Structure formats: C-alpha cells, structure tokens
Amino acid sequence: MDAVTEAKRNAGYRAADLVKDGMIVGLGTGSTVFFAMERLGERIASEGIRIFGVPTSNQTAMRAEEYGIPLTTLSLHPVLDIAIDGADQVTPSKQMIKGRGAAHLREKIVADAAKQFVVVIDSAKEVSVLDAAVPIEILPFAYGSVCRKLASLGGEPVMRNGVKKDGPVISDNGNYIFDCAFGKVDDPSGLESAINAIPGVLENGIFAKMTEKTLIIVGKSA
Ligand SMILES: O=C[C@H](O)[C@H](O)[C@H](O)COP(=O)(O)O
Questions:
Q1: Residue 77: which of 42, 27, 118 has the closest Cα?
Q2: Tens digits of per-residue pLDDT, 128-161?
Q3: Whose CA is nearest to atom 6 of ligand 1?
Q4: Where are the domains of the chain?
Q5: Rounded mean pLDDT of the chain?
Q6: pLDDT of res. 1
Q7: What gap in Å lies between CA 84 and CA 28, rounded to an integer?
Q8: Is the pTM of this model over 0.95?
Q9: Is the CATH code 3.40.605.10 the one for domain 3-127+210-218?
Q10: Measured distance CA(190)–CA(196) in Å, rounded
C-alpha cells in the first residue's frame, strides 16, 4: 500500500473509531471514507455495535452492503449523530471544497443533518486558500442561464464529461455537473451563498458554513 493510501486508511479508521453503539451515521463518498466504512463493517462483526448508515451516493450504498453496514433514510432519521466524509481541499479554518465524485449535493444535506461532521483526508488536501474548481450540480433545463450567471460571478464553468461515456456526467440525482474555476476564493462562505442563489443550481461543493461542528482528521502513514 502506498503512503497516500495508508494515510487515507489511517484517517478513515480513526473516524470509524469515534462511532458508538446505537449511532445513526452519515456515510460520505470517496476513497477515504470507504476505509472508514471498511472499519465500521469490522466493528459491527467483531464488537457487535448496532448502527445504521445514511448513504450519500449509489456507490456508497453498494459499499455499505458489501461491508455489512445496515442502511436507513433521512426521512426516518432526519437527525444524524455523526457524518463521516472526505474532501478535496481543506483550509486551516475548516472550509473546504468537495465534489470530485459528484456527490456533494447529498453530502451537504447529510452533513447538515449531522450533529458532528468528521472529515477524513490525507495531508495533500490541506491548503492555505481554496483554489480548486468548484463542482456545481445544475438542473439540465437551466444550465445555459446558470453558466451565464456563474461567469458574471467571475467563474469559468466547464461541463464535466464522462470517462467511459460520451457527453455529460449525470449525477445520482439526474443532473449535470460543472466544474467552475474562480481562482483563489477569498470569501468561501460568500461565494457558496452567491452560487446557490442562482436559480437552477442545486448545490455547490464549497462547504464553509458548518465549521463549528467539523472535526478534520488528517491521516498519517508509517
Ligand atoms: O463527491 C465526492 C466527494 O466530495 C469526496 O468526498 C471527495 O472528492 C474526496 O474523495 P477522496 O476521499 O476519494 O479523495
């Protein structure tokens, strides 16, 4: 296992060890949180902890089945004890960009519903200022007018295309994903609000409004 993968596993396992018997757990999407889920599966089998997960993507729901993590829904459990997720960039003030895997719409809903938001990363994700392109989920009907407004905010929206599929990536919710570069983001919370105020935007990947309940775990490699 290479050093980055080892760091991701270390972060994921440490997050999974924060979960207590009886908790309802938001399950994020991505390679780092899958290590947390692997460990949760082990703890269910070895310690007999009884937990339920709320998945943020179809891929996470499938992984949960594989690891033996029982699932529930946000309708049955609108308040979660903890949510565990990865991120693409994280600042020292715990603001972040997410959405490399196009799951940020459900990820933000689940994180918002959780009492504690635990973010698992390797040190390559730590930055002083956010500057990655911001993933934005857009209703297909509205993408033309949304892109015009994103440009007026200073962004450069680029449609995310499939890898083994021609044309746009379609999210788990049936929408388009655009990656929108804004350069250095000096006011993440303001930009998060401004993007979401455009009619037709479902959600963007800046997470800047839940820093108080956020715990960042940076994984270590041996
Ligand atoms: O949509 C995907 C998510 O926001 C992921 O949590 C994020 O991209 C981090 O993924 P990974 O842990 O694979 O780097």
A1: 27
A2: 999 999 999 999 999 999 999 999 999 999 999 9
A3: 86
A4: 3-127+210-218, 134-204
A5: 98
A6: 87
A7: 6
A8: yes
A9: no
A10: 10
Residue 131 has phi, psi (to 5 degrees) of -145, 10
Burial code (b: 16+ CB inside 10 Å, e: under 16) for 95-105 equals bbbbbbbbbbb
Of the candidates 9, 29, 42, the one whose C-alpha atom is nearest the C-alpha of residue 83 is 29
Between the alpha carbon of residue 103 and those of residues 6, 47, 68, 87, 188, the distances in Å are 23, 31, 22, 11, 19
- CB of 57 within 6 A of ligand 1: the answer is no
Considering the domain delimited by 134-204, tell me its CATH architecture. 2-Layer Sandwich (3.30)
What is the position in ligand 1's atom list of the atom closest to the CA of 98?
Answer: 4
Centre of ligand 1 to C-alpha 104, Å, is 9
Give the ipTM.
0.98
Name the active-site residue from 42, 47, 107, 192: 107
14, HSE (Cβ side, Cα atoms, 13 Å): 18
Distances (CA, A) of 48 to 8, 13, 15, 196, 208: 25, 17, 18, 42, 36
Question: Coil, strand, or helix at residue 171?
Answer: coil
